[in-house]
From TrEMBL:
InterPro entries: Helicase_ATP-bd, Helicase_C-like, P-loop_NTPase, SecA, SecA_DEAD, SecA_motor_DEAD, SecA_preprotein_X-link_dom, SecA_SF2_C. Residues 27-611 form the SecA family profile domain. The gene is secA. PROSITE patterns: HELICASE_ATP_BIND_1, HELICASE_CTER, SECA_MOTOR_DEAD. It holds the Pfam family SecA_DEAD. It comes from Nitrincola iocasae. The keyword Kinase does not apply. Gene3D superfamilies: P-loop containing nucleotide triphosphate hydrolases (3.40.50.300), SecA, preprotein cross-linking domain (3.90.1440.10). It is a peripheral membrane protein. This is Protein translocase subunit SecA. Residues 113-289 form the Helicase ATP-binding domain.
Amino acid sequence: MYALQTRTVQYPQRTDWHEDPWLVRLWDRGATLFRRLILMNEARQKAFVQAVASCETHLQGATLEALQQALCDVRLQLRREGLQQSSLAQAFALVRMASQQTLGLRHHDVQIRGGHALVQGFLIEMNTGEGKTLTATLAAAVAALSGRQVQVVTVNDYLAQRDATEMQPLYEWLGLTTAWVLEDAGPAERRQAYQADIVYCTGKTLTFDYLKDRIALDDRVSPLKMLLDAYTGHWQQQVLLPGLQFAIVDEVDSILIDEARTPLIISSSGGSVEEETFYVSAIEFARQLQEAEHFQYSENRQLIDLTLSGRQLLEQLTADAEGLWCNRFRREEAVLQALSALHRFQRDVHYIVRDDKVLIVDEHTGRIMPDRSWEKGMQQLIEAKEHVSLTPPRITLAKISFQLFFRRFLQLSGMSGTCREIAGEISRVYNLRMIRIPPHKPSQRVQVPSQIFADAEQKWLAIETCIIECQLRGQPILVGTRSILAADTLSARLQYGGVEHQVLHARQDETEAEIIAEAGQRGRVTLATNMAGRGTDIKLQAGVAALGGLHVLITELHDNQRIDRQLIGRCARQGEPGSWQEILSLEDELVSNWLPPLNRLLRLLLRSSPENRLIGWVARAYYRSAQWMLERLHRRIRAKLLKAEFNLRRSLSFTGKME
């Protein structure tokens, strides 16, 4: 029976810890491609939609008792036979009817297609605003009815709690339990929540809880030992998760790709007073070194190296020091790290300082990551730089990346509005094939011609003009900035000009819901970092659609095009009108150090001929090439990280430890 595949295993998960041989990988990709082209082609998708409609027609007019009996029959059939097409059609019809009764929302045909692909283990791309949250309920509910415990993975706690709360009535009608797990939840609360049929949580929360389970289980991961632990009660007291059975990843490109370069680490406090003094001294020594004379900093490659003069000066500065400073290799390594803390990591860009603490700002979401810290002493060096209390150094207990963790689910699927650019990488790493789902309504999004300037001052003036024009005609505008510093800079200029506006970034995270709720009102000006990107639904005030809907203004491109597309996706949702525009400069962070001679030449040409279309086109192509090269670099880093993790697992396998 299908349900027994997971119910008879104490902690179901994939146990292939090592990289598969190339022939196995080739076979898996071929099988997945076959399923995509043959079993999930356009004709079969439409046939499934018709089958669901036919089942729904038969159920129309049925009493509540009859519907509940049909639900019991489908549940039994799914648990016996698995996800067969006939059972899926009947189950989807019941979920659609339940949604209409409990939520007042009926799944569109394109959402039926999306849910069908998800439950079959595919990656779907749906336009922003097409209702991915409601689409996920189809796959989550049907998988839970078949006996699988489902985790719906989102990008932040706000979305996890919101989606679980909104969809709870639907799941209750289907006889399913649902819960959500927040980052600050306690162990008992987490353990109880994970027993629900469907759990909403963030990828970081889920992965950390898995690492805690691995630490608790230690070497007791064999089926016999786990079964004995269950009988003695040790299992119930120590383990949080019910295994890794079925995951639906929302905003899959953010979690499985953008976050893949950051390993997740569980650590314990360590260190001593001597180490704190060492970090403070490293910062003091680094402040005395001058760029170009004592060290070279390649901002484009993010590399710092000491010159011969710098090494000599460092030796003089540490002549009277003791301990690690007497070792040439250790002192140069420490000062290089300190130089990185001083020059690579910027306040209000990479982190903020709040309540005598250094808090990391996620570059992809713009949100504060209170439980995250830099490793290898970087956290302590930045704290010394900002003159705040130093946190004790950490000792690593367990470590894993998203790339390795999500490969361990028995079944994995995902969805996003911006994943076609990384479909190939996701297919190689996670064996997930992408299916493009067409929109329910034609898009009315309008692109206003882009503008690019030689200098930042010209860009800010053009942005102010655009904001004032939108405000005068009553059109709400969302202005996206790359960093907190840029948002504050623009805010100060607007305040000086008397332009009323609101600011949304990591410092105003408490008022996020209120600011978003008002962002679609007539004449509203909202400045925001990436916090206004993924998962943000801006409702338009009555009459605003006639004024052109929401206008999105991008003031600087991000490290990858998908983040920009997510911000653009806040306008013109579900067939509404909307527009977007880019206003950029060649002094922006992304291009300021990309091919410097060409940058200087283009800036000179733009100053002399700002209206020349050819020069403007070349400047925009140059800007895009910088973004493309950075995306390529990050893709290589992710591939190297995964390869290194496989090598580490191979080494650890000799010791009996896997994390």
